Amino acid sequence: MLLKDKVFAITGGAAGIGRAAALEAARQGADVAITDIVPEESVQPILDAIRAEGRRALYLQGDVSAHETATRFITAIIEELGGLDIFVSNAGICPFHAFLDLPPETLIKTVGVNLLGAYFMVQAAANQMVSQGRGGAIIAVSSISALVGGAYQTHYTPTKAGIHSLMQSSAVALGKFGIRCNSVLPGTIRTAINKEDLSDKTKEEAMIGRIPLGRLGAPEDLAGPIVFLGSSMASYVTGASLLVDGGCFVNLQ
Ligand SMILES: NC(=O)C1=CN([C@@H]2O[C@H](COP(=O)(O)OP(=O)(O)OC[C@H]3O[C@@H](n4cnc5c(N)ncnc54)[C@H](O)[C@@H]3O)[C@@H](O)[C@H]2O)C=CC1
Ligand SMILES: C[C@H](O)[C@@H]1OC(=O)[C@H](O)[C@@H]1O
């Protein structure tokens, strides 16, 4: 087991990539804390699955774009699970929209959830890890979109580039405390975030055609890389970013 008796916390753990990572962390021996904006009832099956692995599970409902959520989440983790070893900033939104008429509210909301939310959470987690004095690991779910553009994602890709950069700077700021900071850069992974976008079958086929491994990703494809970066197997890895995209990024021609 890669995370035996560690405390693993994740934002946006109610669905998609976050849910897959939370469940894998429990399978790998960690107690798991999840925060998400959805009500606790809808997360109950995930909490039950974590407990079925013999691990403790905690849920806090909250909006990551409100900085108080970060304090509330870390406080709950310490009260109920007694410490924090691995923190994953994953919650995010991607409301696809054209550039020229993008409403300011959509920009403000996307930056608030994706970038400010990640910042508040990572800062709070880092402070807790520093005060514990035993190091830790922070992983942010950035995106291949940190490196490439999207005509309907002009408000989204800068948040993912920002998260990628946040992990690089945090790695520098927190190295002296033994805290490692890395990001994963998923390609296109089938989740609720892109269900509507991928309902355009012509677009979906074109996207699959660009991927050397010949398929879109599944949430579970991210679970292993996230657990690996959180584990002692990655003890000399910090400031790094790991593309998890089936080879899409390197497929130029
Ligand atoms: N699915 C994909 O193709 C890719 C996803 N990503 C990133 O992966 C992360 C997870 O996304 P997915 O699992 O794909 O989507 P998802 O929609 O399945 O999961 C996102 C989770 O974040 C939660 N969430 C949304 N707004 C929130 C808020 N204000 N406060 C707290 N929780 C909130 C949602 O309730 C949901 O549980 C996001 O940061 C996304 O940008 C990155 C690259 C590709
Ligand atoms: C939600 C999109 O399918 C997805 O988000 C990303 O960050 C990827 O680059 C895809 O565009």
From TrEMBL:
CDD domains documented for this protein: SDR_c
Protein name listed in UniProt: Beta-ketoacyl-ACP reductase
Superkingdom of origin organism: Bacteria
Lineage, uppermost ranks: Bacteria, Pseudomonadati, Pseudomonadota, Alphaproteobacteria, Acetobacterales
InterPro entries: NAD(P)-bd_dom_sf (IPR036291), SDR_fam (IPR002347)
Organism annotation: Asaia siamensis
Keyword Oxidoreductase among UniProt keywords: yes
Keywords, alphabetical: Oxidoreductase
Family from the record: Belongs to the short-chain dehydrogenases/reductases (SDR) family.
One Pfam short name: adh_short_C2
SUPFAM superfamilies: NAD(P)-binding Rossmann-fold domains
